[in-house]
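Working notes for the structural subgroup meeting. M.R. asked for a predicted model of this chain before we commit to crystallization trials. I am recording the input and output together here so anyone reviewing the notebook later can reproduce the run.

Input as submitted:
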Amino acid sequence: MITFAAASKDCLGRLVRLKHRVWQETYAGIYPESWLREFDEAGHAEKFCKAIADRESQVCLILVEGQDAGYFILGKPKHPIIGVAMSVNALYLTSDFQHQGLGSQVWTEILRRAKAAGQTVIGCRCNAHNHRALAFYKRRGGEEIALDLGHADRSLDQIAFLFRVQ
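Returned structure, recorded in token form:
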């Protein structure tokens, strides 16, 4: 059974461990190797702390049978997307929990929260080299609305999506 728990400062260690793991699983060959090898736990904990304190953000742990499976952050776009007041600023499931239909359940929860907040559209930015995530967002009806490609640093290549909230 999947559940969603609002993250608090008490969850910082869990969130940082999840982020470190999903970055290693997702971004090898995309992000600079030093980012993965020398993961700045304190820096990422501070970012999570700010997101948790931000009244416009929802930081949620994704739990499956009580185990930490991932997290998402929904809120004001970190990078402006024209006409979008709410964005999926992070969405990760560890590899152990992928390809089981959980992503669809998470996406349904994200859309439910967006609708409850009065949103008719939400945005999302995704690394252009994260092909599994791109396919996930396209299967959910994501409309590509902006491309930022061709950077020497592949971590900067991004695709922005727009989703209708029904």
